[in-house]
Amino acid sequence: MSKTDEKNEKRQLLEIQERLQYALTASDEGIWDWNFDTDTGYLSPRYYEMLGYKDKEFDGSGTIWAAMLHPDDKDQALKNIVGVLQKKKRTYKSIYRLRAKNGSYRWILSRGIVVRWNAEEVPVRLVGTHADITEDREKDQALLRYKNNLEKEVEKQTIELKNANRQLETILHASSESIWVCDGEGRILTLNKAAEKLSEITAEDMIGKNIKRLETKGLVDRSVTLEAIKLGRQISRIQKQKKTKRQLLVTASPVFNDEGELTMVVVNERDLTRLNELRDKLQKAQNATDRYREEMTSLHLKELREQGIIAESKEMHQVIETAGKLARRKASPVLILGESGTGKGLMAKFIHNQTHGIKKPFVQINCAALPEQLLEAELFGYEKGAFTGAQDQGKMGLFEMAKGGSLFLDELGEMSLSVQAKLLKCLEEKEVMHLGGLTPIKIECSVMAATNTNLKEQIRRKKFRQDLYFRLNTFTITLPPLRKRPEDIFEMIMRFSAKYKKQYGVRRKLSANCIRKLEAYPFPGNVRELKNMLKKAVVMGEKEITTDLDSHTGTQNRNRAEFQIPEPGFFNTGEINGANFRKTMLACEKQLINKALEKYNTTRSLARFLNLSQSSVVRKLKIHGLSHRLKRNAGK
User: For position 17, what pLDDT does the model report?
Assistant: First the structure.
């Protein structure tokens, strides 16, 4: 070979090397060359670069490559290489993760081709490329996750829609009202079981057909649905079913989409025949309820009378209702307010009986009747030798005596401040401590207190603790004075006079004038004063019929309006003869009732005064057209 040819050949080899070097550095993929027999190989600069290493930082042996494989991919990657050798494949492809220099793993797509075989045609040299597909793999995985999530969301929404449809169908068919659903053209989409039963049809025959079919078949006299579609608004009509002879209240409600297009019409049908029957039954039930209420009221009033409580007035009814509610709830402590003589002690016994029954202890103490030290000892008890004069064995306190029952503290406003402080501590902690004792004792009783003093004024004057007032003022009952419950006076007069006549073995009758004077008297001493008046009149009266209580009650100087029996000239009788006698009597009766209505505002009080039965009073009020006056007065 001439020198010129030799130069040309060298030049060509250099050009080939340059092209190969350019290809190795310019390619995005890493080039590798691996000899199976010697476990040696070559890695291009790009191969190192994609893993974050410097050029030739490690050799291209299979051992190092295997050590860089991800643990989860190692078995499959080695299996793919072994498969090339064992199955004598000409090409190779594998996907796995290789550890980069920073410790992370990159997804690699490795392709190769066998370039040398031995005498047994076993591959001994493999050349290939490595492509970094991490970003594509992550995109594929994200897409796969999105697809899976989307499938799950679609499945979830499908299940929710199915459940919602089942719920709507359940609600639709559970409704006692007839419901039809039509599209915007009047085709029947669905109807519930109540509609089938009411119209005596089947959904199978109706669904898909136009609502006009009902008119054509003569099932209804007019279609409210078609009217709603035509007018585009809700329509209600009384509709008569020709087949079943029922009268229905039908309401058709159009439904529009966001574009304002009519998409559905929902029709409700109510069987007025059934409603009328229910109305009659309800009226009968209401009448029965009213009758039972009247009977229960009579029994309740009888029970109250047996306990000595008279409650004919609306004011006392409200008090008794409140007391009964507190008794049923076993509320404690209860504060009873009212003027002297209004019956606070009797109310406390009533609450006790309603709460615990008559067999449980009812312990009462007048806080104004004992000095401070003695009151404290009585309330809380004391140990042996607690103070001078104490019993040798000690003494149980009233809180302990009332165990299982009630303790009633009367005249609470007269209690000293020091005892008030200890009472507050007992109520707050629900336990007491004996004087001189060390062991607390749990309070196991209801506590009630009463006073006729203005506690707010006592607080202002520093004679009553504000914190104790707030503790007691949770459940409060205020008894009205007798002057504010005149309806109760007549019943009390009858009750107490009968009691004292029996007690003292005398016969006395109270005249109507005497009763009217008592009913007009203001009673500053309340029920206690009334009882004493009647007792004195019964005992001291010398006549069988007591016509005047002035000498026994001191009422002669009272300036209070009294109800007087009208004089004969009061009645406008006109000329009396056989022709107008009946009308004249009715006119006189009406005038008398009108006069009585100025004083009495209940049928019960009117009946007592006029000496008539309550039913007769009600009947006469209707005859004379005076019932409205009674209702007006009762509302005052």
Answer: 62
